[in-house]
Amino acid sequence: MRERGGGWVPVRFSWDRDDRHRRLRAVAVAGLVAGALMAVFGLPPIALHSPLRLIGMVCPLCGGTRAVQALMRGDVATAWHYNPLAFAVVPGALLVLVRWGAGLATGRWVNVRVLRPVAVWVLAALAVAALWAYQASHASMLRHGDGSFRHQVTGMGLAMVVVAAAAVVQMLVVLPLARRFRAGRAGTEQPRG
Q1: Is 35 exposed, middle or buried (0-12, 13-18, 19+ CB in 10 A)?
Q2: For residues 102 and 96, what is the distance between their CA atoms, to the nearest angstrom?
Q3: What is the pLDDT, as a whole number, of residue 117?
Q4: Which end of the chain has fewer CB atoms surrounding its CB within 10 Å, N or C?
Q5: For residue 158, with 0-12 CB atoms within 10 Å meaning exposed, 13-18 middle and 19 or more buried, which class applies?
Q6: Long-range contacts: 80-88, Cβ < 8 Å, 24+?
Q7: Taking residues 153-166, what's their average pLDDT?
Q8: Is the pLDDT of residue 113 over 90?
Q9: How many other C-beta atoms lie within 10 A of the C-beta of residue 128?
Q10: How far apart are CA 92 and CA 127, in angstroms?
Q11: Of 98, 123, 92, 115, which Cα lies nearest the Cα of 4?
């Protein structure tokens, strides 16, 4: 195992034979599939909002669905306008899939270990605060076309159903295919020596 990082850097990267971040790929696949479907078929017919919206507040995730859809379509300006977080989420999910593919091909995985959790949490809190302030400055644009209270609650329910469906697809389709690929690859490897 080779590790890089240390000093003032709060994380360490290692190149290992085991994948310590298996759950990330499930989230990445589900998110990219949902983003691709929205890019092709459009936004869901019901607005997807956080519970904060019900009391009239925007949150750091407000506009995220529209931002991901715009970014998946290649509309960078609109994506930034709705929520800059899409520029971390979409490329991050793609990077997780590249990492997964490289791991399947080489049998070695890039793993990340947090060395200084406090520093990571402080940086994350600062990023969330900055994003929340940015989103609050666009609150009137984000609230456009909210619909009724019933419409918003229905949207939150639909969001939960979509996430659950993506998780089921991941468990029933993607993971068995990956296991089959890995088993086939393990059977064709020649012993060294």
Answers
A1: buried
A2: 10
A3: 82
A4: C
A5: middle
A6: 81/138, 81/141, 82/142, 83/131, 83/135, 84/131, 84/134, 85/60, 85/61, 85/131
A7: 63
A8: no
A9: 14
A10: 16
A11: 115
Write the single-letter amino acid at 61.
L
Two tokens, residue 48: 């997807």
In this predicted structure, what is the pLDDT of residue 147?
Answer: 53
Question: Cα separation of 4 and 98, whole Å?
Answer: 19
**5 φ, ψ (degrees, to nearest 5):** 125, -175
Identify which of 97, 99, 109, 121 has the alpha carbon closest to the alpha carbon of residue 11. Answer: 121
Residue 187 has pLDDT above 90, yes or no: no
Predicted TM-score (pTM) of the model is 0.63
Q: Averaged over 166-182, what is the pLDDT?
A: 69
Neighbours of 48 (CB within 10 A): 20
Number of CB atoms found within 10 A of residue 129's CB? 11
CA dihedral 22, 26, 32, 38 (to 10 degrees): -170
Distance CA 137, CA 131 (A): 10
Mean pLDDT of the chain: 77
- The pair of three-digit structure tokens given for residue 5, joined into one six-digit string: 């990082």
What is the length of the chain?
193
Segment 46-103, tens digit of pLDDT: 776 667 766 667 778 888 888 899 999 999 999 998 889 999 999 999 998 898 888 8
